[in-house]
């Protein structure tokens, strides 16, 4: 048996059984590969009406037991068809594969079926922190000695300050009893910052206008490689005195380097996503290299100690080795992170680092650009999010030791774990499950959650936050994500949240002339909003649309639970409607779109997750109802602008109705702007807005 088939004892037991595949995993599979591709127009005409669709059923109150995918038990015969491969030019796989473009092991290609998880045990001794010592020629040993000889350098290095800090008993008692102190500040690039801390004496956080790379105390070779790796994001606008960071990177890294929790809700896959990824990769790698260098240096000191000397003075390790956990939504994201790590560790073309299992990694996490259908047209943000390999079930351990990197390291021998929420969930398990493994998380010091908004479209319950300090990067303000940051982050150094408010809102991007009616519903509390919204809709909104003259009405529903509840109610009332959700087969989608376009069905129930994963243009919309404000604010303008695809648009009378409550303040502000939101929440009356298409 080959060495590549070996497994670590820590993971072999939990991986021998076939793991349950989430319904979102099946949904993503429809975006990966397909033997045939058809344009949307061809699908509309070619699909047989005899092919049906099968969706999870609930009773009229939506009380069905839901499956793992937050969407219910899916009928076994309703497996989504393979369609629409998604990629983008210039993915990380192309760069990573320059050295090993050929010879990838096809047995580890996700498109060839279920992959048996591989773990590298061959290089265990080479990457062990317990049996290795600092190499003199690496320069790390000298750096460590310099740190020890310079008390100033020792005291100013953020890593040293963080790792050597010991809280006194009085401080711990005060932190648990006294309220947190908070303050507001405005930075040039990040904008409005909210800072809170449980410590009485905590240094104020100020933005650095200019950064000297030496003052960052980057571990070698990062201070040499970072300017070269980050050069692609720098422009001629950057000052000569700060040739290392973009303004955004500089302020983000300034916060991260103080080891505070960070919440940044303005990540954009099109504009700043990659520069943010580079910034947190630099910080994570710097942390790991310094921690490992400290252990290796202390190993050398223990080796040179005289017999009988106490060797327990060096408290440089946790219970387990993994220090950094990085949660990302797709394999392409993990591929790009590993590529950044490799680039940061290679000083120049002549000094390449040794990367174990690189060819296998490329095969499992890469993607063939030729698999993208030539006739696929989607918005730019969609292309950016679903670039490369978008499989959402993965996890991989990375071990780094001086001049070498080990991919597929056993978790207990890894420094960094990169995983998707589903990948972590299937190994951590849940309470009551027999085969679970989570002890490898016991010493995690840094948690990075990137693209957290995507997990709202998958299964938010898979996201767990219980670590020393956390960085969350997300594209929007959302109550669930805010709750994680506010209630489950306990960093004693405090937390920093960027809290900018939208001034205009996405309604300004609506290009069709359309009256917008925002109808407010009153709920006693947050838990009653769901039922209140349903009763408000069926009693006050729906009766106005029952008349046949109000045909071609699309009802946009963000929650799948609400969608099932509405679908069952429409069936019970025998309304003339059709429906499309994330589980609908391609034949059912085409049939529903055709019925709706021709007016054979008066209503179309339409889920947000379907729009997120597919972005089809729905033709024939004349009346639009937002059952709830969309999670992504730009979806509001996207759906409204679909009306321009309607035939005889100039003669049409269009309407748009939006349901909202006071608990939707953040989503409302993202759509209409903060000033209008304040007025709407104070007035408690329905609001009529008219967009001319020139806003």
Secondary structure layout:
Blueprint: H1 9-15, H2 23-32, H3 40-46, H4 92-96, H5 140-149, H6 151-156, H7 158-164, H8 169-177, E1 181-187, E2 191-197, H9 222-229, H10 247-256, E3 261-264, H11 273-304, E4 324-327, H12 331-345, E5 354-356, H13 358-365, H14 380-385, E6 395-401, E7 404-407, E8 416-419, H15 421-428, E9 446-450, H16 452-456, E10 469-473, H17 479-487, E11 495-498, E12 514-520, H18 529-541, E13 553-557, H19 560-572, E14 577-580, H20 586-598, E15 603-607, H21 608-614, E16 623-626, H22 634-641, E17 655-660, H23 665-672, H24 674-683, E18 687-691
Parallel strand pairs: 3-10, 3-11, 4-8, 4-9, 5-7, 9-10, 12-17, 13-15, 13-16, 14-15, 16-17
Antiparallel strand pairs: 1-2, 2-11, 6-7, 6-8, 12-18
Helix pairs in contact: 9-12, 10-11, 11-12, 12-13, 23-24
Explained architecture:
With 695 residues, this protein is an alpha/beta fold. Among the domains are: 205 residues, Rossmann fold, CATH 3.40.50; 187 residues, Rossmann fold (3-Layer(aba) Sandwich), CATH 3.40.50. 34% of the residues lie in helices and 13% in strands. The chain is built from 24 helices and 18 strands. Strands 1-2-11-3-10-9-4-8-6-7-5 form an 11-stranded mixed beta sheet. Strands 14-15-13-16-17-12-18 form a 7-stranded mixed beta sheet, sandwiched between helices. Strand 16, helix 22 and strand 17 form a beta-alpha-beta unit. The longest helix is centred in the middle third of the chain and has 32 residues. It comes from Geococcyx californianus. It holds the Pfam family Utp25_C. Belongs to the UTP25 family.
């Amino acid at each position: 048996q080959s060495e590549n088939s070996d497994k670590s004892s820590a993971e072999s037991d939990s991986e021998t059984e076939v793991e349950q595949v989430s319904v979102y995993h099946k949904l993503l599979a429809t975006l990966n590969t397909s033997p045939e591709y058809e344009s949307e127009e061809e699908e509309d005409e070619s699909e047989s009406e005899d092919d049906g669709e099968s969706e999870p059923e609930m009773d009229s109150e939506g009380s069905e037991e839901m499956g793992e995918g937050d969407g219910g038990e899916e009928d076994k015969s309703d497996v989504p068809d393979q369609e629409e491969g998604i990629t983008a030019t210039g993915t990380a796989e192309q760069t990573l594969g320059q050295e090993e473009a050929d010879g990838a092991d096809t047995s580890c290609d996700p498109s060839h079926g279920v992959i048996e998880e591989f773990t590298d045990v061959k290089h265990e001794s080479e990457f062990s922190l317990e049996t290795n010592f600092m190499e003199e020629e690496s320069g790390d040993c000298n750096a460590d000695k310099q740190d020890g000889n310079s008390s100033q350098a020792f005291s100013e290095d953020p890593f040293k300050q963080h790792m050597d800090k010991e809280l006194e008993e009085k401080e711990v008692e005060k932190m648990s009893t006294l309220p947190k102190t908070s303050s507001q500040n405005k930075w040039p690039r990040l904008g409005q910052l909210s800072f809170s801390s449980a410590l009485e004496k905590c240094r104020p956080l100020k933005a650095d206008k200019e950064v000297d790379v030496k003052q960052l105390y980057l571990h070698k070779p990062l201070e040499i490689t970072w300017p070269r790796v980050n050069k692609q994001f720098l422009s001629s606008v950057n000052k000569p005195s700060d040739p290392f960071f973009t303004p955004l990177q500089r302020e983000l890294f300034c916060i991260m380097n103080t080891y505070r929790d960070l919440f940044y809700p303005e990540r954009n896959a099109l504009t700043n996503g990659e520069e943010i990824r580079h910034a947190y990769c630099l910080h994570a790698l710097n942390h790991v290299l310094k921690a490992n260098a400290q252990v290796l240096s202390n190993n050398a000191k223990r080796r040179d100690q005289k017999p009988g000397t106490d060797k327990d003075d060096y408290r440089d390790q946790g219970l387990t080795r993994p220090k950094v956990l990085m949660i990302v939504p797709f394999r392409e994201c993990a591929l790009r992170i590993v590529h950044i790590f490799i680039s940061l560790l290679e000083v120049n073309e002549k000094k390449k680092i040794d990367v174990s299992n690189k060819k296998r990694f490329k095969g499992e996490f890469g993607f063939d650009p030729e698999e993208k259908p030539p006739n696929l047209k989607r918005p730019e943000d969609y292309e950016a999010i679903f670039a490369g390999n978008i499989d959402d079930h993965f996890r991989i351990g990375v071990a780094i030791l001086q001049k070498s990197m080990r991919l597929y390291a056993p978790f207990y021998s890894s420094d960094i774990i990169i995983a998707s929420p589903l990948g972590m969930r299937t190994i951590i398990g849940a309470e009551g499950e027999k085969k679970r493994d989570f002890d490898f998380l016991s010493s995690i010091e840094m948690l990075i959650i990137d693209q957290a908004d995507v997990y709202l479209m998958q299964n938010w319950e898979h996201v767990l936050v219980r670590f020393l300090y956390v960085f969350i990067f997300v594209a929007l303000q959302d109550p669930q994500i805010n709750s994680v940051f506010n209630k489950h982050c306990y960093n004693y150094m405090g937390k920093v949240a960027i809290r900018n408010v939208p001034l205009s809102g996405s309604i300004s991007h609506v290009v069709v002339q359309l009256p917008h009616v925002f109808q407010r519903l009153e709920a006693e509390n947050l838990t009653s909003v769901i039922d209140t919204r349903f009763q408000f809709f069926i009693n006050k909104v729906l009766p106005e649309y029952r008349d046949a003259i109000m045909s071609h009405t699309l009802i946009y529903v963000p929650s799948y639970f609400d969608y099932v509840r509405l679908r069952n109610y429409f069936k019970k009332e025998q309304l003339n409607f059709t429906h499309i959700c994330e589980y609908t087969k391609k034949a059912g989608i085409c049939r529903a779109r055709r019925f709706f376009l021709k007016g054979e069905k008066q209503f179309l129930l339409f889920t947000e997750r379907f729009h997120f994963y597919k972005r089809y243009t729905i033709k024939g919309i004349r009346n639009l109802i937002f059952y709830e404000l969309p999670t992504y604010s730009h979806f509001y303008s996207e759906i409204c602008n679909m009306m321009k695809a309607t035939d005889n648009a100039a003669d049409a009378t269009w309407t748009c109705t939006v349901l909202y409550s006071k608990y939707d303040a953040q989503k409302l502000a993202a759509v209409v702007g903060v000033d209008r939101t304040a007025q709407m929440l104070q007035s408690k009356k329905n609001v009529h807005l008219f967009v001319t298409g020139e806003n």
